Amino acid sequence: MKLDLGCGGNKKEGCLGVDIKKFPGVDVVADLNQKFFPFRDNAFDEIYLHDVLEHLDDILHVLGEVWRVGKNGARVFVRIPHFSSPYAYNDVTHRHVLGARALENAHPGLKMVKRRIKMNRIFKRLGIEFLANRFTYRWEFLSFLLPALYVEFEFEVKK
To answer: pTM for the whole thing?
Structure first.
């Protein structure tokens, strides 16, 4: 089973969609800021959190719940706006502004498999996106001069 947390009106195909409001495609209306997600332990093979974590009160608690409902070996896909992105600051509902390294060790049961910095087309064509992904720690010091749009993470659930 697949789970799309905070899907809004853009639920991923084949997923159970969860959002705080009833949009078309939302299967379960739930507030992800609440203590527990309304799902049993070890229920999902894939979990998506695209443009969600920055809206939530307690990211560490949410990642703990993601770990709880994910099966051993499940894949977790997260996308956040990078702190250098205009998307990070142009939404009053954002509670957090995060960087490319923010989720590296956020939960001991979520092993980071991949991290990908995504930039606009011009920076991608110029090879800046490639360099940012190759030298993430150094690039982040220059990121307001060479901004990213998003950071995408892939984690594996380890139990």
So the answer is: 0.94
